[in-house]
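ARCHIVE CARD
CATEGORY: sequence design from structure
SOURCE FIELD: tokenized fold
FIELD CONTENT:
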């Protein structure tokens, strides 16, 4: 009987250690959190892995899509889909946003009114309008710590998006 108990105990210990190792080393916890700010009527999206945060209106929901190879898309949208914006980021090894990259992500290459803006921490960004078969968009592109960020909303939400972009912080 003593040998049987030792075997069962050994199996239980090994199994417990295995599950613990899996949970702590292989199962990655969410890399972001959402914090309600009742005073301002916003929520704060805080991504500690990518090192940025921003505030967005309370009425929006958030969905995160893992595109693979450390590329992600976040979609912030209200129930109707009338007010929404998305943030796409992917590894990028250039120092500047090139025409080649724009043509890759804006297939018809049709951009208008490009302007340089400065966001949090003095990061220079390219803001422009683009159009496709689904509509016209305001886009803000910038590079930070080896990643290209592309923030997009419908053109008629330009001022709304600008207010959200003013809250962007690198942490």
């Amino acid at each position: 009987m003593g040998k049987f108990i030792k075997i069962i105990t050994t199996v239980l210990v090994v199994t417990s250690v295995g599950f613990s190792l899996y949970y702590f080393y292989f199962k990655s916890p969410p890399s972001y959190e959402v914090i309600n700010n009742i005073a301002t009527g916003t929520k704060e999206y805080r991504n500690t892995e990518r090192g940025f945060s921003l505030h967005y209106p309370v009425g929006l929901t958030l969905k995160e899509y893992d595109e693979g190879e450390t590329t992600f898309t976040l979609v912030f949208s209200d129930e109707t889909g009338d007010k929404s914006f998305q943030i796409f980021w992917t590894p990028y090894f250039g120092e500047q946003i090139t025409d080649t990259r724009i043509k890759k992500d804006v297939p018809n290459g049709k951009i208008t009114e490009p302007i340089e803006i400065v966001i949090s921490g003095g990061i220079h960004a390219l803001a422009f309008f683009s159009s496709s078969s689904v509509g016209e968009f305001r886009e803000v592109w910038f590079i930070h710590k080896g990643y290209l960020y592309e923030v997009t909303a419908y053109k008629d939400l330009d001022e709304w998006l600008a207010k959200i972009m003013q809250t962007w912080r690198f942490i």
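CARD ANNOTATION: The first helix runs from residue 2 to 26. The helical segments are 2-26, 99-105, 158-165.
SHELF: design records, drawer C
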